[in-house]
Amino acid sequence: MGHPGYVRMFAPNRLTMGIFLPLRFYRGDMSVLEGQGDLVTAIDHRGFAAVWVRDVPLFDPGFGDAGQVFDPFTYLAWLAAKTRRIALATGSAIFSLRHPIDLAKAAVTIDRVSGGRLVLGIASGDRPVEFPAYGIAMEHRAQRFAEAVTFFRRLVAPGRPQITSPLGQVSGADFLPKPATGRIPLIVTGSSRQSLEWVAAHADGWLSYPGASHDPSGPRELATKIAAWRALIPDGGFRPHMTNEWIDLVDNPSYPRTPLRGGFVLKTGRKGLIGLLGEWQAAGVNHAALGMQFAARPPAEIIQELAEEVLPHFPTLAGPAPRTNAW
Questions:
Q1: Is the whole model's pTM more than 0.85, yes or no?
Q2: What keywords are assigned to this protein (predicted)?
């Protein structure tokens, strides 16, 4: 796949690094996001492979996580204008909640204005409050997700689409624009209520959670899962695997890998993080998305240390430059 964002992030036996937004946890005050755009510009300049945004349509206080607050597609369009090479990734767009025409229109627009940098992580959704708000039964999310993926793919493919689906019919109309490189990569998150065989057959990559990251047992278990998934890929070709972790990177480089918040956050120094990333790479992981919203140190400090001390061990891949257009 000659997609600039995809090739920047993924290659066999290699691991690259991305940064998950928001850089600070939302606690009821939008000022926590001030300056984040400039830090994303710095992340791009320093050579990270990707920046990730989340899709949280409604904030459920009981769930306790508002994502990056902004709509992911609108926000990525703004970040596209502030960056030049970094891949722009969603982690993950909720395909079971929105119509695939609207998803495709937003996604392909960002892909075109960014020169082919959008990598679309997708999911079936896990927040019960959102489904009745959309008038959708949560128990139907698995079927809607699979139908939306098929509809989306047919819509953005070259040529005039002919689609008959429970989600709608398209005939006698075209979809514009088309992707910059002919395809939008779709990265399935978790199972998205599908079988592992379905993910192997339909996804351009798989994003799954890492399990324990404070000792080598977690990466070993992850390696088994990745191998089982790759064994099911129909053509036996390369498909990338991604995982993510929320880190509290402390200034003591030798601080041991220590789980916090029941294992939801990893507190560590850079040596521990380098060790973890190496274990993930050996397990078959091709991209690690690191979040710092729960970290104690300022984001700018963590970004600088990651760029100077960790990124050289896991460099971003060379690939086709983003398409340039004078929009």
A1: yes
A2: Flavoprotein, FMN, Monooxygenase, Oxidoreductase
